[in-house]
Amino acid sequence: MASRNLARTLLRSIAPAARSALAKPAFALRVASSIRPAAFSPMQTRGIKTMDFGGTKETVYERSDMPLPKLQAYFKNDTLSVLGYGPQGRGQALNLRDNGINVIVGVRKDGRSWKKAISEGWVPGKTLFSIEEAADKGTYLLNLLSDAAQRDLWKTLSPYVTAGKTLYFSHGFAITYKDQTGVIPPKDVDVILCAPKGSGSTLRSLFVNGKGLNSSIAVFQDVTGKAKEKAIALGIAIGSGYLYETTFQKEVFSDLFGERGILMGAIYGMFRAQYDVLRENGHSPSEAFNETVEEATQSLIPLIGENGMDWMYANCSVTAQRGALDWHQKFYDAAMPVYKDLYKSVVTGAEVKRALDKNSQPDYRESLEVELKEISDSEIWRSGKTVRSLRPENVESDK
Ligand SMILES: NC(=O)c1ccc[n+]([C@@H]2O[C@H](COP(=O)([O-])OP(=O)(O)OC[C@H]3O[C@@H](n4cnc5c(N)ncnc54)[C@H](OP(=O)(O)O)[C@@H]3O)[C@@H](O)[C@H]2O)c1
């Protein structure tokens, strides 16, 4: 009831732009099937600036700091070797290529990534090589292997990390948890990071559509005095929208914390708890799913993304507003000890140890499949499939 009122009030009060966004499928970001290098011109105005984030001043870097010709000139004598062609390797390599930067890809021969890279125009012997060959040719080594492979292949890769080269990561993982990964770069290379705040396919699709994902940048080792400048240039070259500064350690702590928290772990825990209480109290699966996931993802979360939670609280029905104001503190109090435990587990390295140990087990793929199947077989997500199939746009596309 409260949410029906809420939805009604919202539809009345929201701006036309938000209403039209509501009419579209949420997060409808298309991954481009083709690329348009010649026509592509993602660079736009605005420059380095200090912004006020709720009272704290931070420096941010935007695309206009590195217009395309400047970017191309910056890297004109370089070969950027993207090692790995998973979501990040693929997204970053394609964006670099579209930006006219000299980029090659290095992956293990005949693996899934090798085949995918060939299908997207990378040519063996010209722009596609083994990891060792690409590492040998590159002046910038973009280590975008999986985090486990960064540990496993460090001994293979490190002979190619030679004086004057720049070593780049998109996660502070390997460097911060060096006791577990063994990744200790030589002292004569710059070591930088640019971590897109989203998946590689989002990085790609936003770039193709003239937009940009936000990324954080950091410097671990600055031999040339230009490490930060390189991180900014590379951050823009891979297609980021704007860049904010962090450290390798803060990047990995916040990333591991966030994905275990609200982004994946906490949100699923909360979905499940709410759905199960509704089901235990006799609500149908369609009602439980609609009140829990569908309304959140289709209506409220896009609005929160667009306008903020403060706006959301100010623009809902009085009934919903009173309830949310009264209950959010209880959820905060319940979540706080869990979040504190989680942060500790990240900082001590326990999370990383578990991830690496699990990943190293020979039967991990099989046991993972079992865990994932349990989720997809659960009632909530089976209900979700039916609910999604009933969205008008899906019904129409079936015809
Ligand atoms: N995914 C994200 O949303 C995201 C966001 C920001 C930052 N990052 C960071 O970006 C980096 C890359 O992430 P990702 O998600 O793109 O990685 P991923 O999909 O897990 O793996 C990327 C590559 O690693 C290769 N690989 C894995 N094991 C290997 C092995 N034993 N030997 C040789 N190659 C191996 C894979 O090649 P094959 O196909 O041959 O197996 C693939 O090309 C990581 O540091 C990650 O933390 C990821």
UniProtKB/TrEMBL annotation:
<dbReference type="InterPro" id="IPR008927">
    <property type="entry name" value="6-PGluconate_DH-like_C_sf"/>
</dbReference>
<feature type="binding site">
    <location>
        <position position="291"/>
    </location>
    <ligand>
        <name>Mg(2+) 2</name>
    </ligand>
</feature>
<dbReference type="GO" id="GO:0005759">
    <property type="term" value="C:mitochondrial matrix"/>
</dbReference>
<feature type="binding site">
    <location>
        <position position="255"/>
    </location>
    <ligand>
        <name>Mg(2+) 1</name>
    </ligand>
</feature>
<keyword id="KW-0028">Amino-acid biosynthesis</keyword>
<dbReference type="InterPro" id="IPR013328">
    <property type="entry name" value="6PGD_dom2"/>
</dbReference>
<dbReference type="Pfam" id="PF01450">
    <property type="entry name" value="KARI_C"/>
</dbReference>
<dbReference type="Pfam" id="PF07991">
    <property type="entry name" value="KARI_N"/>
</dbReference>
<keyword id="KW-0809">Transit peptide</keyword>
<keyword id="KW-0560">Oxidoreductase</keyword>
<comment type="pathway">
    <text>Amino-acid biosynthesis; L-isoleucine biosynthesis; L-isoleucine from 2-oxobutanoate: step 2/4.</text>
</comment>
<feature type="binding site">
    <location>
        <position position="295"/>
    </location>
    <ligand>
        <name>Mg(2+) 2</name>
    </ligand>
</feature>
<keyword id="KW-0496">Mitochondrion</keyword>
<feature type="domain" description="KARI N-terminal Rossmann">
    <location>
        <begin position="56"/>
        <end position="246"/>
    </location>
</feature>
<dbReference type="InterPro" id="IPR013023">
    <property type="entry name" value="KARI"/>
</dbReference>
<keyword id="KW-0521">NADP</keyword>
<feature type="binding site">
    <location>
        <position position="317"/>
    </location>
    <ligand>
        <name>substrate</name>
    </ligand>
</feature>
<feature type="binding site">
    <location>
        <position position="255"/>
    </location>
    <ligand>
        <name>Mg(2+) 2</name>
    </ligand>
</feature>
<protein>
    <recommendedName>
        <fullName>ketol-acid reductoisomerase (NADP(+))</fullName>
        <ecNumber>1.1.1.86</ecNumber>
    </recommendedName>
</protein>
<feature type="domain" description="KARI C-terminal knotted">
    <location>
        <begin position="247"/>
        <end position="394"/>
    </location>
</feature>
<keyword id="KW-0479">Metal-binding</keyword>
<dbReference type="GO" id="GO:0004455">
    <property type="term" value="F:ketol-acid reductoisomerase activity"/>
</dbReference>
<keyword id="KW-0100">Branched-chain amino acid biosynthesis</keyword>
<dbReference type="GO" id="GO:0009099">
    <property type="term" value="P:L-valine biosynthetic process"/>
</dbReference>
<comment type="pathway">
    <text>Amino-acid biosynthesis; L-valine biosynthesis; L-valine from pyruvate: step 2/4.</text>
</comment>
<dbReference type="GO" id="GO:0046872">
    <property type="term" value="F:metal ion binding"/>
</dbReference>
<dbReference type="GO" id="GO:0009097">
    <property type="term" value="P:isoleucine biosynthetic process"/>
</dbReference>
<dbReference type="InterPro" id="IPR013116">
    <property type="entry name" value="KARI_N"/>
</dbReference>
<dbReference type="InterPro" id="IPR036291">
    <property type="entry name" value="NAD(P)-bd_dom_sf"/>
</dbReference>
<keyword id="KW-0460">Magnesium</keyword>
<comment type="similarity">
    <text>Belongs to the ketol-acid reductoisomerase family.</text>
</comment>
<feature type="binding site">
    <location>
        <position position="259"/>
    </location>
    <ligand>
        <name>Mg(2+) 1</name>
    </ligand>
</feature>
<dbReference type="InterPro" id="IPR000506">
    <property type="entry name" value="KARI_C"/>
</dbReference>
